[in-house]
């Protein structure tokens, strides 16, 4: 079933000359074909001038981990060429033609683009003009492009991210778990995920702890999805360890995608003190559809 006018039409994926990009591209092209959406591959590279900054601002940027490391001009050109080659190869493998100018069609099209700047600045420009961004999950203690792309897209694009593991997994979205906490971020994530929820074979909703906030309860979400013709099963846990409890429900119901709001307590506080978002996008190796709004 297709949820009418709420379908995704533009899927964006950052492309670099790195092994994890192949897996992210494979998921992005598969998702585009599934939704009859277009896919736009962006190669983002730092401008040399942006690395000539004082130590104070640079420390701030690196703390946010949304900056790419400096690369020599010759290596930048090689990386750009290899990234475009990988994108075109994956498009060919998925049977999706490369287009020149953006246009609508009854089948998926792929488009290639390049931009120069920091990931945070660029995702703030290109992120709002897409429907979903596909990125690979950085390894738990890793830095570099994977972490920079994920955090910059999550914090600056204001659009949902599909974060996929750096290992082969089946195309996510057959059995979906929604992590519900009565907050606006979770509600926005559910709305953004409607095209995937409508195509899922099973949808589960979990709330950890008592539903004591002023926001909607799981029953309201269940009824909202019924208006879209989407059935769902509700789960409640004690709320003593939300991350582990969500993971337990996820595994017990053989889910392959987690839908959640992101960084509702503030990104810096969560990353220092720990939180559900931080653990789900860094500690647990599962596909996550997340939205920070």
Q: Brief overview, please?
A:
The chain has helices at about 20-35, 55-65, 75-95, 120-125, 145-155, 185-190, 195, 220-225, 240-250, 265-275, 275-285; strands spanning about 10-15, 40-45, 95-100, 110-115, 130-135, 160-165, 175-180, 200-210, 235, 255-260, 290. It is an alpha/beta fold and about 290 residues long. It folds into two domains: about 5-165, Rossmann fold, CATH 3.40.50; about 175-290, Rossmann fold (3-Layer(aba) Sandwich), CATH 3.40.50.
Task: Provide a descriptive summary of the structure in words.
By secondary structure, the chain is an alpha/beta fold. The chain has two domains: 4-164, HUPs (Rossmann fold), CATH 3.40.50.620; 175-288, HUPs (Rossmann fold, 3-Layer(aba) Sandwich). 40% of the residues lie in helices and 20% in strands. It is built from eleven helices and eleven strands. The chain has helices spanning 19-35, 55-64, 73-93, 119-126, 145-156, 184-192, 194-197, 218-227, 242-252, 267-273, 276-283, and strands spanning 10-14, 38-45, 97-98, 109-116, 132-136, 161-164, 175-180, 202-208, 233-237, 257-261, 288-291. The chain has an eleven-stranded mixed β-sheet with strand order 3-4-2-1-5-6-11-10-7-8-9, with helices on both faces. Helix 8 (218-227) links the parallel strand 8 (202-208) and strand 9. The radius of gyration is 19 Å and the shape is globular. The two termini are 27 Å apart. Residues 1-5 and 49-64 have low confidence and may be disordered.
What is the global morphology? globular
Question: Kindly state the mean pLDDT as a whole number?
Answer: 83
Please count the beta strands (DSSP E, at least 2 residues each): 11
CATH architecture of the largest domain: 3-Layer(aba) Sandwich
């Amino acid at each position: 079933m297709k949820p009418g006018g709420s379908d995704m039409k533009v899927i964006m994926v950052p492309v670099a000359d790195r092994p994890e990009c192949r897996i992210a591209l494979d998921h992005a092209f598969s998702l585009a074909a599934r939704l009859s959406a277009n896919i736009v591959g962006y190669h983002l590279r730092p401008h040399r001038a942006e690395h000539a900054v004082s130590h104070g601002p640079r420390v701030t940027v690196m703390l946010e981990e949304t900056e790419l490391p400096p690369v020599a001009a010759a290596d930048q050109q090689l990386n750009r060429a290899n990234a475009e080659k990988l994108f075109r190869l994956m498009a060919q493998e998925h049977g999706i033609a490369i287009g020149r100018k953006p246009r609508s069609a009854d089948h998926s099209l792929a488009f290639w683009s390049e931009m120069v700047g920091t990931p945070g600045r660029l995702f703030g420009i290109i992120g709002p003009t897409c429907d979903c961004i596909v990125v690979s999950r950085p390894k738990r203690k890793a830095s570099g492009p994977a972490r920079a792309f994920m955090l910059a897209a999550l914090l600056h694009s204001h659009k949902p991210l599909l974060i996929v593991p750096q290992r082969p997994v089946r195309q996510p979205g057959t059995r979906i778990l929604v992590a519900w906490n009565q907050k606006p971020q979770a509600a926005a994530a559910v709305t953004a995920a409607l095209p995937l929820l409508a195509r899922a074979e099973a949808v589960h909703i979990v709330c950890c702890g008592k539903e004591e906030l002023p926001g909607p309860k799981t029953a309201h979400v269940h009824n909202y999805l019924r208006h879209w013709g989407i059935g769902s099963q509700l789960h409640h846990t004690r709320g003593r360890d939300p991350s582990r409890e969500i993971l337990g429900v996820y595994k017990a119901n053989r889910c392959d995608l987690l839908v959640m709001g992101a960084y509702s307590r503030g990104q810096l506080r969560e990353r220092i003190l720990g939180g559900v978002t931080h653990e789900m996008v860094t500690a647990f190796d599962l596909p996550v559809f997340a939205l920070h709004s």
